[in-house]
Fold these 2 entries.
Entry 1:
Amino acid sequence: MLGPIVNALVIVVCSLVGCFVLRGIPPRFEEIIKKAIGLSIVYVGIKGSFESERVLLLIMSIVGGAVIGELINIDKLMNRLGDWAEKKLGLSGGAAGAGQTKGFSQGFVTASILFCTGSMAIVGSMQSGLQGNHETLFAKSILDGSISLVFSASMGIGVLFSAIPVLVYQGGIALASLAIRDYLTPDIIREMSAVGNLLVAAIGFNFLIPASKAAGFSAIKVANLIPAIFIPWAYLAIVNFLH
């Protein structure tokens, strides 16, 4: 659990720095920085998705995961969780103050999805659980910390609370990997990572193309695509069992 714990702590510390030290970034700098990060995220996500050797499975996973996620409406549930935490903390309505000028839920949901998806989160957590090797999650901590600085300065303290799902998600994978180690083949890990990276690319697109009903654009509800990550594991586990 050392890797997931360090990752979560780095997000907390860097988010605090962003909220209380780097706050008040001029809008034009905030906009260009978010575009630059979005472009980088798209590149990293698409590059990672090319690792897939089963393109049809990847497509089926994305479509199937979208249907499951939309039925559950994970995006709505995560936003409700963010709104609930916002009210409990007395930050409702974007009250003035350090790190509170932007939507709490937006920062919480965006950062949570970004930090929890992708190959580094999945593979790194498995390495921590199976091998006690935390190097991948330590490297991820540096990346997440850098992003937390910028995100928290522009979207507020909601980014800090993304450390909670990061710890639960990555810690859960690390512990679960011990229980299902016999079912985690390199093929399964590769395909799960590829799907996760495609979701990361979707987050980048949301930064590059802001939602605008007038222009005919709508943000991708990436949270509703999360179930797609686990479809390759279910499919390949069944295939391997039957053979």
Entry 2:
Amino acid sequence: MVIGCPGSGKSTFSGKLHKLTGIPLFHLDLMNWNSDRTCVDKAVFLERLSNTIQKDEWIIDGNYGSTMELRLKACDTVVFLDYPLNVCLDGIKERRGKARTDMPWIEDENEEDAEFIEFIKNYNCQSRPKVMELLDKYSHKDIYIFKTRNEADEFLNQL
């Protein structure tokens, strides 16, 4: 599973990992969102996720804290893109207006979701401690924590 702050490049990293390994890739955002920017019913999301983690092999990118432990129980490897705030904010800016394979819509270049930006700004003090607690709980898994894009790229280059 590939996790990290929004804008860290989870989907980009996951796509490269998929190409190198041939392991099927799934995006939590595609399991959760409709193209009209509404969420699917929670039961539908959980069914989609459950069907995915029952497969022999998978790469799942995305956070979705409410299901992180479910995925941790099922996975053998975790990649945490643990990047500084400015890297993640830049990542959000760079993807605006571009088609993405991990989302069912294109984010408007001029669109600024203040609540989403605030979530990103608070990620290191609010979400990251919970992630680290879960990674500690599942420390028997293969866990890779990358602090820079170069570290993540070096990992991929070694595969």
